[in-house]
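Reviewers asked in the last cycle whether our approach scales beyond single polypeptides. To address this, we selected a multi-component target totalling 650 residues and predicted its structure end to end. The input consisted of the following lines:
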Amino acid sequence: MIELPPLTQIPNQAELLVTHEAIHPFVHRTPILTNASIDRKAGAKLFFKCENFQRIGAFKMRGAASAALRLRPEERERGLATHSSGNHAQAVARMARELHIPAYIVMPHDAPRVKVAAVKEYGAEITYCNNTPDERQAALDAVVRQTGAAFIHPFNDFGVIAGQATCAMELIEDTDVVLDTIIAPVGGGGLLAGTALAGRYFSRRAEVVAAEPKAVDDAARSILSGRIESNAVNLTVADGLRTNLGERTFAIIHRYVSEIFLVEEQEIIDAMRLIWERMKIIVEPSCAVPLAAILKHPERFRGQSVGIILTGGNVDVDRLPFGQS
Amino acid sequence: MIELPPLTQIPNQAELLVTHEAIHPFVHRTPILTNASIDRKAGAKLFFKCENFQRIGAFKMRGAASAALRLRPEERERGLATHSSGNHAQAVARMARELHIPAYIVMPHDAPRVKVAAVKEYGAEITYCNNTPDERQAALDAVVRQTGAAFIHPFNDFGVIAGQATCAMELIEDTDVVLDTIIAPVGGGGLLAGTALAGRYFSRRAEVVAAEPKAVDDAARSILSGRIESNAVNLTVADGLRTNLGERTFAIIHRYVSEIFLVEEQEIIDAMRLIWERMKIIVEPSCAVPLAAILKHPERFRGQSVGIILTGGNVDVDRLPFGQS
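The resulting structure, written as structure tokens, was:
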């Protein structure tokens, strides 16, 4: 097992390369799919990086692996801790199981049953809390104090960001054309920050842009104002994108991401339906946000080769956003 | 374009090989996926042949291509005709478009809107009829009389059977282990008959078995009684499997298929959910029937390498069989 040094600043090219090497035993090199009928609709050549086929069903496995491998052995053996009701919880739980160490996950009482079941299946210990930022933090602090486990932040961590960067590194390496644009969705910004670094270090040409639900447009506003903005409400079908940026992700995104496209809820659902129906793969609503942006701005992407990161496929098939007619 | 001679009897090994060669420009060589977590649940090593990624989203493209290439040029240019409200309609329409000839599809008035739209998108001319066998046949006869188009039967045609056989040929060729069993669902029997021939001609060991919804167990009863049985009602979630066998498919299946496993409706839905949730791919209920059979009879399949044909992925995402809680 390759162990990694801690990262205290924005990772450089060599640090991303060694991260990719180190996490290799813990993640899949996911396929890149294309679809002629969606290409015709978009007027562009789209390369979908399928992190829905990643272990635990989402790219978060990359960041969790990268962060866990940066802990000193005596830290690591006390276990991993985090707060999350989503894919990051599963990723931390799964990585802990791979390393044969305990995992402690703080989840809200009202977390989806399927997410709780998945985390339990990986053998993690769950602590329930009320669903407010303060209570979540208090519950996490208590868990860390009692167990000595290492907190793995869902995104605001250079180790996590370096892990997420490996997704776009593979996208760039495995695509047989030179990409003009790479587009990723943005929530807390871990994936987007990593993608921006990968684009800068490993692509001759690709511009890295982002897509965000208009209902939670904090990242777009943060880029404009130059400081981290937040959302008054966070109601969007793209449940993976409700979070605000952190200072580490913001520092990278502000510097290296040129544009954030905003899309409406119905546009997200329509794009998700298009991926399901044409590509026959299951993707989360968050995945559909970049495609929605491309279909909304055909003039921006026309004729281009565009890499799209499909972030994950963990949806509750009992609660889909399509019309149940 | 390779043209094929007509088939008036059960195709032999060489005829399947040349069929595979001839249809190559019109079909995808679909991937074979594996899933460690479903393997653990099944106690077997499963190889899923993903015809949900086939053109038009189902294996039916193979049979339509094989049948169309067997028409004499002067027949072919008058166009293709069929009756179907499902994947075969789309396959015939798409193949006609590939050959730049007309397609005439007879569909019931109450066919799903999405299926009608897909057939229209391929440029076919639709004739609506009432949803009874007699009226359907009358409408088809009228279309054929008026247009001179060639009728492509959905399954009871040796050309179609030869086309469907190419799916298992690829499964056998592209799997890096020797398969112990190949399992396919059975409706009209075109796929199963083709799979049985492919298994017999191209596998050193594989036994070909089938799976069928208990609610429409006509094929299982036909094997026992030695003649084609039919269903009094055909209510099953596996809408691709409601048809009875034809005499050509029966002749092959009766001879070469050793066993047909029956599964309950809820077992089909549970297996479909398992494929969706673990593999992150969209498959039709019919696809889940073989996996349901494997999970129901673990002792039969334990420790084996089993090839499973996933027939297609054309589901209406607005009407899924999962509980909408």
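The two ends of chain A are 51 Å apart (CA to CA). We regard this as preliminary and will revisit it once experimental data from Aim 1 are available.
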